From TrEMBL:
One of its GO terms (molecular function) is adenyl-nucleotide exchange factor activity. Belongs to the GrpE family. Keywords: Chaperone, Coiled coil, Cytoplasm, Stress response. It is found in: Cytoplasm. The lineage of its organism: Bacteria, Pseudomonadati, Pseudomonadota, Alphaproteobacteria, Parvularculales. This is Protein GrpE. Homodimer. The keyword NADP does not apply.
Length: 209
């Protein structure tokens, strides 16, 4: 006798209901916010993405504007420095040149005392010319000092190759070895920079006391 097919023993209606219950969310549990219908909605996601893109673009634009502003300021600073450098090269000696005008005036006044024919010059004219030249030299040295230029006159000092240039060596005439015996031309220095070394003769030490 054939048995009619029947439901398996483990597939009772109660068990099916239990499995269906396990597949569905448990009652009372909250669905995570990123899994809600609203969060998974395509239109909503697109709206959020567009808002974020707009926000990032605004930040990029602000940074770009700031960089452009800094670049413009740097360019203005460079141009200003270049203009100041050119002005310094053109007009840096304006004050010094102005001070030299008084020296030129003294030269002119001294020459006015000189006769057109030197052989006809009187002792007073010659004396006046010499005094005028001395006054001009004094004025010139004053102008140098006012502009930071100092004269180097090292007679009797120890030879300094940084400020002196030896043009000859001589017995010494009593000066110790490697000391300046005579100054052929004074030197000049501005600050710590030598404009021209003093031209000097240097003692060999012979005949020194």
């Amino acid at each position: 006798m054939t048995e009619s097919p029947g439901r398996p023993e483990d597939e009772t209606p109660g068990r099916e209901s239990q499995r269906e219950g396990e597949a569905s969310p448990r009652g009372g549990e909250d669905i995570p916010s990123h899994l809600t219908d609203e969060a998974l909605d395509g239109a909503h996601i697109k709206s959020l993405a567009e808002a974020r893109i707009a926000e990032m673009q605004a930040e990029i634009d602000a940074q770009k504007e700031q960089l452009l502003r800094v670049a413009a300021e740097l360019e203005n600073t460079r141009r200003r420095a270049e203009r100041e450098r050119q002005d310094a090269a053109k007009y840096g000696i304006t004050k010094f040149a102005g001070d030299l005008l008084s020296v030129a005036d003294n030269f002119s006044r001294a020459l006015e005392l000189a006769p057109s024919d030197p052989s006809l010059a009187s002792p007073d004219q010659i004396s006046g010319l010499i005094n005028g030249i001395r006054m001009t030299e004094k004025e010139l040295l004053t102008v140098f000092e006012r502009n930071g230029i100092s004269r180097i006159d090292p007679k009797g000092e120890r030879f300094d190759p940084n400020q002196h240039q030896a043009i000859a060596q001589v017995p010494g005439n009593g000066e110790p070895k490697d000391h300046v015996v005579d100054v052929a031309a004074p030197g000049f220095i501005i600050g710590e920079r030598v404009i021209r070394a003093a031209m000097v003769t240097v003692s060999t030490g012979a005949n020194a006391d």
